[in-house]
Specification:
alpha/beta, TIM Barrel, eight-stranded parallel sheet, 16% strand
Length: 255
């Protein structure tokens, strides 16, 4: 049986089922590895505890742009300490969000840069949140990121923007939006990203794919993302699963 990797899922935020249930469901549906990012300052302590509970759950540490206004430089030291654990495998999710918060753009940029530099220092990849901030996100990454692999989490840009990201050697992660009937732009991206640069995610509990749209998302549903991309590209589910799993191993140095 081919395995899948959900490279971005907030199982600590699920409300309809427990984290334990979500992990069990994922395994039953062929999801071998689950990567959980932090978002809020509180998550910096929560995620490291979570990864100790489950053999197949790994953590990413960082502050989401919506929480940049709550930043404290002591967070950098916390992340450094927690990153000594081999199961903390990336800095994320970090980035810019101009959809929800236009009042703190300068703060968002400053905290984004600090966390990029931290990722480089720790030799960890970066999971990037970019919503309605494509140019600034791209420009900051291009200027400040020196050594870290970059994953454009929950990619929402155009085919043209994806090509610019790919030129930089970054990875494109696609989630449940690609299954939506109205998501024409995302379907085109899914068809054109080279297989060796493609990753899968759910972003659970958000952005639930068809056929469960409107309900709470969970890592088990990443298979519907894989199925849709396979259909769009005219290849097998197994080919998508194998390629994206190998990419996740490469980017995040997973065994």
């Amino acid at each position: 049986m081919v395995s899948l990797t959900d490279t971005h899922t907030h199982i600590n935020c699920l409300q309809k089922i427990t984290a334990e249930e979500s992990v069990r469901n994922a395994i039953e549906n062929g999801v071998e590895k689950i990567l959980v990012p932090s978002a809020s300052p509180e998550d910096i302590d929560t995620v490291p505890k979570l990864v100790k509970q489950f053999d197949n759950v790994y953590g990413m540490l960082g502050i989401h742009p919506e929480d940049a206004k709550n930043w404290n430089d002591s967070i950098l030291d916390k992340i450094r300490e927690y990153s000594k654990d081999d199961k903390i495998i990336a800095i994320g999710e970090i980035g810019l969000d101009y959809y929800w918060d236009k009042k703190h753009i300068d703060i968002q940029k400053d905290i984004f840069i600090k966390q990029i530099k931290l990722a480089n220092e720790l030799e960890l990849p970066i999971s990037v949140h970019d919503r309605d901030a494509h140019k600034d996100t791209y420009d900051i990454l291009k200027e400040y990121n020196k050594t870290s692999n970059v994953v454009m989490h929950c990619f929402s840009g155009s085919v043209e923007f994806s090509r610019e990201c790919l030129k930089q050697g970054w990875y494109i992660a696609i989630g449940g939006v690609v299954t939506f009937n109205s998501a024409n732009k995302m379907k085109e991206v899914a068809k054109t990203v080279p297989l060796d640069r493609l990753l899968l995610e759910t972003d659970a509990p958000y952005l639930t794919p068809v056929p469960f749209r409107g309900k709470e998302n969970q890592p088990a549903y990443v298979k519907y993302v894989a199925e849709e991309i396979a259909k769009l590209r005219g290849i097998t589910f197994e080919e998508i699963a194998e390629a994206t799993t190998e990419n996740a191993k490469t980017v995040f140095k997973l065994n």
